[in-house]
Amino acid sequence: MIYLEQVLKETSRLYPPAPIIGRENKESIQIGTHIIPPKSHIAILIYMLHKAPDVFPNPEKFDPDRFSAENMATRDRYSFIPFSLGPRICIGHLNAMMQMKIILCHIMRNFKVVSMDPLDKMNVMMTATLRCLNPIRLKITLRE
Fold first, then answer.
1. Which residues participate in heme binding (predicted)?
2. Over the chain (144 residues), what is each successive 10-residue block's mean pLDDT?
3. pTM to 2 decimals?
């Protein structure tokens, strides 16, 4: 189950359920040479944050080991926020993770699932949620 959780986290890194979130800062914030005044509307691009090469080397590669205990211990907790973080975290994030584990275990135990298209052919569109522009074609067969 530990590796399954790493797989789900890596999937959420590459394809976060909410690719962009909005916030309003209470105090002024300095980022580099820029000062953001209080009560500014800020968009946090989670989709891009999760692809930062200084945090996630080779960011387009699917690598569940990024979420091993050793690798997580050295990474800033704000570098991976598929459900946001802090007091505004998605209230259903634990339920979502549990449901994904249960459903994926059931599918993988009973079926063989093979992608019919290469991953690089998957085009996504950012809206309130991340969605695929083209159909995701899978070959699903019953396990014997």
1. 90
2. 95 93 94 95 94 96 96 93 92 96 96 89 84 91 94
3. 0.87
